[in-house]
Prior knowledge:
Strand content of chain B: under 5%
Low-confidence stretches of chain B: none
Number of helices of chain B: 15
Largest sheet of chain A: 6 strands, antiparallel
Order of helices and strands of chain B: HHHHHHEHHHHHHHHH
CATH architecture of the largest domain in chain A: 3-Layer(aba) Sandwich
CATH class of the largest domain in chain A: Alpha Beta
Number of strands of chain B: 1
CATH class of chain B: Mainly Alpha
Shape of chain A: globular
Structural class of chain B: mainly alpha
Shape of chain B: globular
Mean pLDDT of chain A: 82
CATH topology of the largest domain in chain A: Rossmann fold
CATH topology of chain B: Ribonucleotide Reductase, subunit A
Number of helices of chain A: 12
Strand order of the largest sheet of chain A: 5-4-7-2-3-6
Number of domains of chain A: 3
Largest sheet of chain B: none
Radius of gyration of chain B: 21 Å
Strand content of chain A: 25-35%
Number of strands of chain A: 20
Oligomer: heterodimer
Distance between the termini of chain B: 46 Å
Number of domains of chain B: 1
Amino acid sequence: MSLRATFSPLSLLGSRLEAFKRDLWMVAGDVTGRPRASFERREPLGRHLQVAAPPREVLSPRTVRVVRVVRETDDAVTLHLVDAEGAAFTFLPGQFLTLLVELDGETLRRAYSICSGVEDGGGGVAVTVKRVPGGRVSTHLLTQARDGDTLRVLGPSGSFTVALEPARRRDLVLLGGGSGITPLLSIAKSVLAREPFSRVRLVFGNRSWDEVIFRDALAELVAAYPGRFAVRHVLEVAPKGWTGGVGRLDVEGCGAELDALADEAPGCVGAQANDGEKAVEALEPPEVFLCGPEGMMAAAREALTARRVPLSRVREERFSSPGQQVAARGASDEQPLKPQPITLQGRGQGRVVVATAGQTVLEAGLRAGVGMPFSCALGGCGACKVRLVEGEVEMEEPNCLGAEERAQGFVLACASRAKSAITVEVP
Amino acid sequence: MLATSRLTNLLPARMRSQLDAYLEALDLLRNIRDPRVLAALGPSGVRGIFLHRGKQGVPTQMQAAHAAHFDWRYPSDQPEMAELYSRAKEGQWNGDSLPWAIDVDPLNPEVPLLPDRFLDLHMLEDYGIKVSEKEKREISYAMTAWMLSQFLHGEQGALFAAAQVTEAVQFFDGKLYGATQVMDEGRHVEVFNRYLDTKLNKLYQINDNLFVIIDSLMTDGRWDMKFLGMQIMVEGLALGAFGTLYRQTREPLLKELLKMVIQDEARHVHYGVCALREHFTKHISERERQEREDWAFEVALLMRNRFAAYELFEEYFEGRLSRANWRAFVNRTPGMVHFRTVMFSRLVPNLREIGLLSPRVMPRYEEAGLMQYFGGAAADKLTAEQLLS
Lengths: 427, 389
């Protein structure tokens, strides 16, 4: 994973020389009668996918119908969804949907990453749900979801994504753990299908073989894109005769895997290249996409930093929902939260609502019928940010708020719980 | 002649076509009479036709050498351009609002992109080539993708040329108008690119002759040459092509897209006519005018004969048909005949109107069969409705 800059004082001369070589190559091609391809296959670019999404999809829920439920493992199902009105889903690989699930008269929001690739077709989209211990929504979906059910969803949203460009020559390294595979699968499928010169390598950690989601889908991808896609499974508990990696993806584990990738032959993907020149061009420096449990992500970050991979080439998706974090929180020895009054100024018109113990500011506000803005409801998009005027909140970290916004007193309504009576201003 | 063709017939098909391409290029250069025009077009010709700079698969750098013309007094100098500016502001539209949800199946015979007679493949039987129904549909699809790809490349040229002209022009009202044209061209790039990427899924490389024209006017330091090249010649070509395709396609999204684009183009040519009429009749010497007159004639010829969709020929017919026969076929096919008629019936009156079709050059137009268009209405007398009718 060498990521050295390649500047040299001779670069200007070098680029002239390159241009001259290209001219010569063209003339030689004409003189020798080398056949040429005068067109290229094109697919919608990131730009087109983005503009295709009308704004309402992000701001208000749309209704979707479950058309197929696929059991991936004992603890994970994939739900294939189509728009109830037949509109096509447009999304970028790696984005998530926020599902609004009605349970006991309450609307619960959970984000699930899209696992389908943008090439999959059919106009629908698939999300994968993994059971979270004690998680109401995931357990409900896992046990109750049936074909024909309808759900409301928000999104797609999220910025853990790639802007597909057929001419790119990416060297993507995907590092996933458990259900963190979901957005990575979408990215892998989409990049392989849309970028014929890019290479994708996946390192996928799981406790055991039985818990590996998308085993078959991954194997099919390997077969479909020989030389351009590789998977390395790393298991904590390996079955007999296992030839893949063994161990945890902790700092050493991640480090060893990264070193092994770096030792592989430098990529030159020419599988579908139709002109001789392009096939020998080197790949871009590696880009790393991380998605998995927080422990694995922290370890991966540390291992990458130790290998001097610039953070600008590392992208992360934190794969947790408020429900999971509350569960995690319960285990700590912090004071349990109590019900608190919340005064909502600005768009909230001064209304006072009461948040039950552990309810987020957003949940409390929406519950009371205040039209608070929000989108992902998971601390990932910033749509719900409010200014904390008075009082104290506990905000889930990490989230998408920037340092400047924090300094101005903004908090995310979807990720904040009142620790005292608070006043917030809804923009 | 017989001897050369017997010799060349021994060569492999690809090389035979290449020889034809070289002969065609030499023929073009040899026919330029004015050495200054040759000097202006020659280097671009080498870069486009011999070095295929537009087909190298890497971005192309073109050095510009014009001066940005500032005026700190902001004069209200050209009422006709001010009027156009005001119309252009009203006429802005959003590319996202086209009906993109329409599904386009390029091979569906029920909703043809182009009518069969556009590229009348039956005519190839004269050369002993039979084309199956399936192949016909594919070629029709390829032809549409080829044309739209050239439109897209042309619009990229127009975008940068419009920006350069906006910097260089000396009329202040023209600069304000020019800003709207830059926006228009950006939008045209957006919609053609989106149509090709999301509906036809195919993009052809830039045609060498189109590259020559764009290269020549981008690298020319004289703003009025850029202007003449882009606003009159390329826009005239575009109007001819858009108009032809607009009238003939049955695909509703493409039709709507072209309708919106044509309405913008009508303003662009109108602007070209008013700016250049002012400039050529009042601000330049007779010698300079003559040079521009000759340049315009050469480019008109370049546009008449050279957009023969050779890229399509290479894809489908190389080896089955000679390049010269393909050229003869394309130039006779009804779609192309129609396209040339529309293009020249717009272009020739515009050249007359801006003072670049004096009796001095008329015999050459006559010889090229273009004088029949002389009496038509110039762009400043034509409305968008007339262009769409």
